[in-house]
Amino acid sequence: MAQLKDYIELTKPKQTFLLLLTSIFAYLTNVKSISFVGAVHLIASMLLSISGTTAMNMALEADIDSLMRRTSSRPIPQGRLTPLEGMTFGIALFLSGLSVSLLINIYVAIAIILGLISDIFLYTLWLKRRNPMSIVLGGIAGGAPALAGWAASSGKIDLQGVLMAITVMLWIPAHIWYIAIYYKEDYETAGIPMLPVSYGVKQTVKAIITALFILIAVELAMFVMNMFGLVFLILSLPFTSLLLYKSIVYLKDLSKEGARRMYKMASPLIGIIFIAMFIDNMIRVFLLS
Predict the structure, then answer these.
(1) What is the spatial distance between Cα 93 and Cα 262, in angstroms, rounded to a whole number?
(2) Cα distances (Å, whole numbers) of residue 15 to 47, 116, 214, 217, 235
(3) Is 42 helix (H, G, I), strand (E, B) or coil?
(4) Nearest by Cα to 67 from 243, 185, 220, 240
(5) What pLDDT, in 10s, does the model give residues 239-249?
(6) Contact 232, 194 (CB under 8 A)
(7) Per residue in 171-206, pLDDT tens?
(8) C-alpha–C-alpha distance, residues 215 and 210, integer Å
(9) CA–centroid distance for 225 within its chain
(10) Is the pTM of this model over 0.70?
């Protein structure tokens, strides 16, 4: 039972659930094309593939995790599992998820593979130990579940699916960099050149603010292009704008505890945006029926 718990921990359940949520609601936004079987296949494929990619990531980053206070208690750094066991577990989960995705359509599989390439090859193996902007390209992995969800219901990869994925990518800087500010000393100890370590906290917050400005522009663009209606804008824009405002205010503080508060404020934003997409679509379908 203890080892089972360790394997589950490799999948980072909270992070996996959040990404799964974006995929499910991206799928549900195309309400006319959804089905119970399709939803079950999507949930299974995304749960397995996201969990598998995360477990592989944990196996590859065990040496870094062992140096950081926040991550040193994880199963592989503690020796409860070996990197080989973690990698084998991750590959098995990912391939299972990829196999299920093929029951939906090839575009879902393409999105899942794109997520793997971004997370494992671009972010973990290439950029994380070298480049302070690693999460920007690595953020493609965060957007892949949303792209897969839209592809599952629409049967294609198009501009709307890409913009939904970009929405996630633009949220990631606030989600990742605020917690990186809080654990800045950990990243310094591990020799990881995260943006707060390489360029300082103030420049990092400015980068977050820039990403949030662009996120608001993307939300407005999806409304203008009639991908989503006024309900989406009313439900999502105030929360994004509030995070932007609080980030600008945080520039005058730049405290460690303030960064933790900003992280907690940023974390639920992506869920709010995707739920707003779903509610907007449901109302539009109801009014047109």
Answers:
(1) 33
(2) 11, 15, 23, 26, 23
(3) helix
(4) 185
(5) 999 999 999 99
(6) no
(7) 999 999 999 999 999 999 999 999 999 999 999 999
(8) 9
(9) 24
(10) yes
